[in-house]
Specification:
The chain is α/β, with parallel strands linked by helices and 494 residues long. An eight-stranded parallel beta barrel has the order 2-3-4-8-9-10-11-12, surrounded by six helices. Strands 1-17-14-13 form a four-stranded mixed β-sheet, with no helix packed on it. Strands 16-15-18-19 form a four-stranded antiparallel β-sheet, with no helix packed on it. The protein is built from 13 helices and 19 strands. The chain starts with a strand and ends with a strand.
Length: 494
């Protein structure tokens, strides 16, 4: 097995970035598949183009030194992988329920391509959205809309699964178990769609379910929140029972509560809130230890009066100390929003600076992948030069399992012109990274990494080195999916 690991020229080795980049930082991007937002660009594209486009997304963000791709594998009761639990997504195949020709294992392929670039793969799912519209003519007869019509509630312009039904939660839990056990995902990821955003003049018709399952003296609102809590708790248990190192993350709507309705809330004036309208309580999930990370969607500009990015980000940093906290940034709004702040090239850089200055922020996620590709060159240049000039280690899960990591056996190291060939052997049943560092004046800087899967036992890697890098002190180590690291091992170039 041979891969290519490219090291960034160390012209700016340890000090040139104008902001201090943390050694460990989550740098993720959402790759949305619903309605073909990011990928595939069109469901009828041929296989070669689909693969080329996905690789293009990965390569763009790899060049930016991002370390995680959050890929939507379930949009609305469908799947981007073969399963008996849901039909094939029409956003992949063109026809729901129809398998993609010549692309029998797309999820395995996407995971492999992501890992080849030293990036984590987070499987992103929508638990409760059953359809994206009321037009059900495009649905497969194997869709739950037809198989279990008693599970479905029409609301607004969509159909939703009824979160109050135990059988709905059980099926979704089975979906998670299948993903975690069959695929080498690094995390399971939910977004903000729990109970639907409220539609004026309409009622979410779950009264009969509430009468059947609600507890004595329990309000409808508290019962709904308890249903979502049960889903989150069960998914957490399923993941950790099967693969304790696989992380569980959720990206809620940015405002938990407004201060006007609860003194614990943020000083905002959001029209809807996560707690009161979506019946989701991320603070409880963090308190109970059910999440490895939280990624609130803070898609407003820094000084937006109704809900400022600065105010909301600070609120989350102050109220969720017991989990990894990543800020969701709305890069899709750049030069595409009525808020004039988004017309300026420094809005996203200002948000990243602010996040790095807050003690409890551990990284950022951009929505969505296409927002920066082929456009906003000045923004991209600033991001690359100021924030992401060098790689960063991935944060480990919240509940770390401490284990000893052995040094890899170096089978061979050779320098041919400016290409370093290194072959290693390392046995472990848990995914891990091979990390390459340059040491200077007692400090180390990560300059490249490779993902080593559960099945990898050895590998050969080719690293492009400048003449200056060849004269530097090179070291490698192994870090596992829990964040444990081996000792450093020097590389002696022959």
């Amino acid at each position: 097995m041979q891969r290519f690991l490219y090291i960034i020229p160390i012209l700016f080795l340890l000090s040139c970035a104008t902001t201090k980049a943390p050694k460990e930082e989550f740098r993720g991007v959402w790759i949305a598949t619903v309605a073909n937002i990011d990928w595939p660009k069109h469901p009828d594209d041929n296989l070669a183009k689909k693969k080329q486009d996905f690789i293009g997304i990965l390569d763009f963000y790899k060049k930016m030194n991002f370390n995680a791709a959050i890929v939507q594998v379930r949009t609305a009761g469908d799947a981007f992988y073969p399963t008996d639990l849901a039909p094939w997504s029409r956003y992949l195949t063109g026809t729901e329920g129809e398998a993609p020709k010549g692309f029998e294992k797309p999820l395995e392929w996407m995971i492999a391509e992501t890992h080849k670039r030293g990036m984590e793969f987070h499987a992103w799912l929508n638990p409760y959205r059953a359809t994206v519209s009321l037009d059900t003519s495009l649905l497969s007869k194997t869709h739950d809309y037809y198989q279990h019509p008693d599970w479905i509630i029409k609301y607004g312009k969509k159909n939703y699964y009824n979160p109050g039904l135990p059988e709905v939660r059980e099926k979704f839990n089975n979906i998670i178990e299948e993903l975690v056990t069959k695929y080498e995902v690094d995390a399971i990821h939910f977004d903000d769609y729990f109970y639907p955003y409220k539609v004026e003049g309409e009622t979410f018709s779950d009264e009969e379910t509430f009468k059947k399952y609600g507890l004595q003296d329990q309000t409808l609102e508290d019962w709904r929140r308890s249903n979502v809590d049960s889903l989150v708790r069960n998914v957490h248990e399923t993941i950790k029972t099967n693969k304790p190192w696989v992380q569980f993350g959720i990206s809620p709507f940015g405002v938990w509560k407004n201060k006007s309705t609860d003194p614990r809330g943020s000083d905002t004036k959001a029209g809807q809130t996560t707690y009161e309208d979506l019946y989701a309580d991320p603070l409880l999930w963090v308190k109970e230890g059910w999440l490895d990370y939280l990624a609130p969607q803070v898609y407003w500009s820094m000084e937006y009066a109704v809900a400022s990015h600065k105010v909301i980000t600070t609120w989350w940093a102050n109220n969720t100390p017991n989990t990894n906290l990543y800020v969701g940034n709305g890069t899709y709004k750049i030069k595409n929003n009525a808020d004039k702040a988004w017309k300026k090239k420094n809005e996203i850089p200002k948000q990243l600076n602010f996040a790095r200055d807050l003690e409890n922020i551990d990284g950022n996620i951009f929505f969505s992948a296409k927002s920066l590709i082929g456009q906003h060159k000045k923004v991209n240049k600033k991001l690359q030069k100021k924030f992401y000039s060098l790689p960063a280690e991935n944060p480990g899960p919240l509940n770390k399992v401490v284990r000893e990591i052995q040094l890899p056996a170096i089978d061979s190291v050779h320098l041919n012109n400016q290409v370093l060939d290194i072959c290693i052997s390392h046995t472990d049943d848990i995914p891990r990274f091979l990390n390459l560092y340059i040491s200077k004046r007692g400090k180390t800087q990560l300059v490249g990494k490779e993902y080593l899967s559960e099945s990898d036992r050895d590998g050969c890697y080719q690293l492009n080195l400048t003449e200056k890098q060849q004269r530097s002190n090179l070291q490698i180590n192994i870090s596992d999916a829990f964040g444990n690291q081996s000792a450093m091992q020097p590389i002696n170039i022959k």
